[in-house]
Amino acid sequence: MNQKIRDKFIALFGAEPQMFRAPGRVNLIGEHTDYNEGFVLPAAVDKMIAFAVKPNSVGRFRFFAFDLNESFETEADNIGVSHTAWANYLLGVVAQFRKAGLTVPAFDCVFGGNVPLGAGMSSSAAIEVGMAFAINSMFGLGVNRLTMTKFAQMAEHEYAGVNCGIMDQFASMHGKAGHVVRLDCRSLDFEYFPLDMTNYRLVLVNTGVKHSLASSEYNKRRAECEEGVRILQKYYNGVRSLRDATEEMIEAHRAEFGDVVYRRCSYIVEENERLLAGCKALADGDFAAFGQLMFGSHEGLSHKYEVSCTELDQLVAIARTVPGVLGSRMMGGGFGGCTITLVEKTKVADFESAVKRNYKTPDGREPVIYEVVIADGAGELRIEN
Ligand code: GLA
Questions:
Q1: What domains are there in the chain, each with its CATH number?
Q2: Phi, psi (rounded to 5 degrees) for 238
Q3: Which of 121, 268, 328, 365 is the residue whose CA sits 20 to 30 A from 27?
Q4: Residue 277 Cα to ligand 1 middle (Å)
């Protein structure tokens, strides 16, 4: 794969490129909490996007999306949001470096990989993070990982129109093999938790439903949470985001919230609590307790936050019936994409056959199932000749 990206670069641009990579991510628990300044527990995985890049002297950005077999070109001095959706992830990152006063000259880029698109494994974040890492290294700009993470996030806001939180880009940039990252999305302090997977596996099942509703509904959820904060601020001085809210506060103002905002806020408060309890369970090696919290997270996402869909609910219901499954839930923004399931290693085959027996994608196919391994975040990629 990486070799093919490099060969394509050489075929198109006639020069040896530098190579970089950025992974997709999973999130064990803590969904939709990042933009509420709460906690998340993601990890980078062994599915990644590879980049071959090199400065050019033609004054143009020349990009090639290997998986789509499509090219894109634009004048380097004059960039803006383009009609080519995938190119916006790259251009958006260039724009952020420039906004920060850094010079990004013209370059060529071929990228592609095996992070499935629209499956909730954050292929877009992997593209943004990989691009940021490549630009920073190629031109020796000296930007640190956290700042690059923010550039990648802002690229998504400004060039892709999704007001995402920081989780996906953070995980892709800061992941560490064998560890999950507990990130405090307010202070951006983070801690690596070793995840001893000797007896367990993380299995993702793709519903085969593309989350087409995701960006509009995502931005709507953000607005509903902000509405909740505005109401709480009338009564409590210290509330800056739902991170500061408690169950008592939410209950006390239930009538004023109305049903929808009440359920959104209640979910966020509970999900942050579940995450903190989950970290404690992991520290105690209590995977069974962690799994129950995953099921709880799914219930909340489905009924209170309403970002699940029939197919995701169906997959979680199937997971519940399989002995050896500890927990399962939808992962990422929702409305499609994958479930993440924590399974005993020896029961993975049982789980997979139960899924294949009982679930078909909307177009009647067997769902794609991925066993993922937790891997390192973005970095340079060396290819042996
Ligand atoms: C998407 C966003 C993230 C996060 C998740 C939900 O993946 O990009 O910032 O909000 O949804 O947890």
A1: 2-195 (3.30.230.10), 200-372 (3.30.70.890)
A2: -80, 5
A3: 365
A4: 21
